[in-house]
Amino acid sequence: QAKQSGAGRYVVFDLEMRDSFERRVALEGDLRSALAHHELQLHYQPIVDLASGDVVCVEALLRWSRPGHGWVPPLQFIPVAEETGLILAIGEWVLREACRQARGWHTGLSRGLAPAVAVNLSARQLQEPGFADQVAAVLAETGLPADALVLEITESILMKDRETAITRLRELKALGVGLAVDDFGTGYSSLTYLRSFPVDILKIDKAFVDDVARDQEAAQLARAIVELGRTLHLSTVAEGIESVDQCDVMRSSACALGQGYLFSRPMDAAGLWELLQSTENGLELAR
Ligand code: C2E
Ligand code: MG
Ligand code: MG
Ligand code: MG
């Protein structure tokens, strides 16, 4: 009896594995054709100056409208794109598309009001020896000034291959683009290394921001990260601000910038353009 149920369980497990393998293969195939069939789209989320409400930057976030599945969130397909190497083509498309659109904001809004655009990089892109050349070519082709582009790299990517990261970041820095450490606080940074990376911005992970309004310790931790940033001459962005209280704590911690549903959810290019025009690029900050 016991043996039978054991064998039964094994068969079920095997079927489940085959099912998830087949789903995975289908996902891979669909993803391969997504680029060619224009199923990928960028949405944009404002990053605001916590003192003035100005939209100083806009983060580009990848969206995939997969036929028969609706919108697939990036965390479901980016890992697959990374394993297959497809992320290199996808990442180049994201970069070009974001720069092209940002160039449009710069043309359409008076200079000084147009926000910079922030683009997320994957580990594979950073490993490419020719990546900085690709960025330079896209900037030249789209006409976007280098200082209007910010590249976001997660702390864990930076720490995984520090030597390659430093080389690549120096090349990128030489182009004049801004560099941000994404999801800071989750990747076990060596502070010595952090100091040697030529970055400009620390993005404090949402996990730290979540509890700042109800937990003294969390608030002090967030404040400590802002101070660490100041020591290293880095600007700080609080990610995932959802409430007025969280915003107040981060502002009083001298965190310069914030991003989150409180200000705006990510929206498509048309929605963002409307927002930039209607607000003359300043969001009313609730206090
Ligand atoms: P991320 O770079 O840390 O982006 C911030 C994520 O937090 C986004 O999720 C955004 O929608 C979400 N978010 C922003 N404000 C709030 C808030 O107030 N509350 C909550 N609950 N969430 C908020 P999204 O768009 O699902 O992206 C997830 C991750 O996927 C990104 O995290 C980034 O690591 C990755 N990703 C997105 N686009 C790209 C891309 O073009 N290339 C690469 N390599 N990765 C990307
Ligand atoms: Mg990011
Ligand atoms: Mg982030
Ligand atoms: Mg994050």
TrEMBL record:
Residues 24-280 form the EAL domain. Coiled coil: none annotated. This is Bifunctional diguanylate cyclase/phosphodiesterase. It comes from Actinotalea fermentans. The chain holds residues 483 to 769 of 769 of the full protein.
